[in-house]
Automatic annotation (TrEMBL):
Gene3D superfamilies: Hotdog Thioesterase. It comes from the Bacteria. The gene is fabZ. It catalyses: a (3R)-hydroxyacyl-[ACP] = a (2E)-enoyl-[ACP] + H2O. The keyword Signal does not apply. NCBIfam families: fabZ, PRK00006.1. This is 3-hydroxyacyl-[acyl-carrier-protein] dehydratase FabZ. The active site is at residue 60. It comes from Sphingomonas canadensis. Involved in unsaturated fatty acids biosynthesis. Catalyzes the dehydration of short chain beta-hydroxyacyl-ACPs and long chain saturated and unsaturated beta-hydroxyacyl-ACPs. One of its GO terms (molecular function) is (3R)-hydroxyacyl-[acyl-carrier-protein] dehydratase activity. InterPro entries: FabA_FabZ, FabZ, HotDog_dom_sf.
Amino acid sequence: MSGDANEGAAIGPLDVTRVMAALPHRYPMLLVDRVETLIPDERIVAIKAVSINEAFFQGHFPGRPIMPGVLQVEALAQAAGVLAVESLGLAGSGKLVYFMSIDGVKFRKPVEPGVLLRLEVSFVQKRARICKFAGKAYLGDDLATECEFTAMIADPPSA
């Protein structure tokens, strides 16, 4: 047993400032507004407040606004990025979390403006540079989106 008394202890809630410290994304691509719970090396529960003011709703679709599925998956990936950065102690290191693969994506319910999209992501496998995650996005108790994805921790590209 390790001597760290905080190991596995839940942290949160984390506000958007702490989210931005973990992720390089900024408006309009920052898709995590708050972290409700984060258990290092295990899982995260985060929130994306879906507003009618999101730029993508202008064209997707006029008269029937629906959050694009790829952005739902991106929101899950960003939540996973926060989980990875916090679990691996990478905050402030400049390291980035890059998508490598996305598997088994299923869209179950449309995500419309005015909802809180709950992002639940857990580690399936964790290594120093490669992590595999399982993610689910919920509207209340209803499953909206689910997928598995793999990401790589790496240095940002040189300018």
